[in-house]
Write a structure and sequence with these properties.
The protein is built from 5 helices and no strands. It is mainly α and about 110 residues long. The protein has one domain.
Length: about 110
């Protein structure tokens, strides 16, 4: 797989998540409060498992971004962390693209 194909795939994943989020979730959350959202996230055992997975995946991404900022001098990782507010499915591809442009693997 070429680097260009890989980046296109990452951008496609992020774009698909955003489209699905806007089409499926946004109409449902018009009057949802933060407390309601938390209750819904952990409303069933399955939802709790998925929510926990997402939150811990974001925590691992956070640690990775901070670690590489210090050890490999990867800059602008904070952009990916902010995109985590949209979703980890956006934040991770963003960080991989940011990272690819700065870190050359041996």
């Amino acid at each position: 797989m070429t680097e260009r194909t890989f980046k296109a795939g990452l951008l496609g994943i992020a774009a698909l998540f955003i489209v699905l989020f806007v089409v499926i979730l946004a109409p449902e959350v018009k009057d949802l409060t933060f407390g309601d959202a938390i209750d819904d996230m952990f409303g069933t055992p399955v939802a709790s498992g998925v929510a926990t997975d997402i939150l811990l995946t974001y925590a691992a991404l956070f640690l990775w971004v901070v670690y590489e900022a210090v050890t490999k001098k990867v800059r602008r990782g904070w952009i990916a962390l902010l995109l985590g507010a949209v979703g980890v499915a956006v934040a991770l591809p963003a960080y991989l693209i940011i990272r690819m442009n700065q870190v050359k693997e041996s």
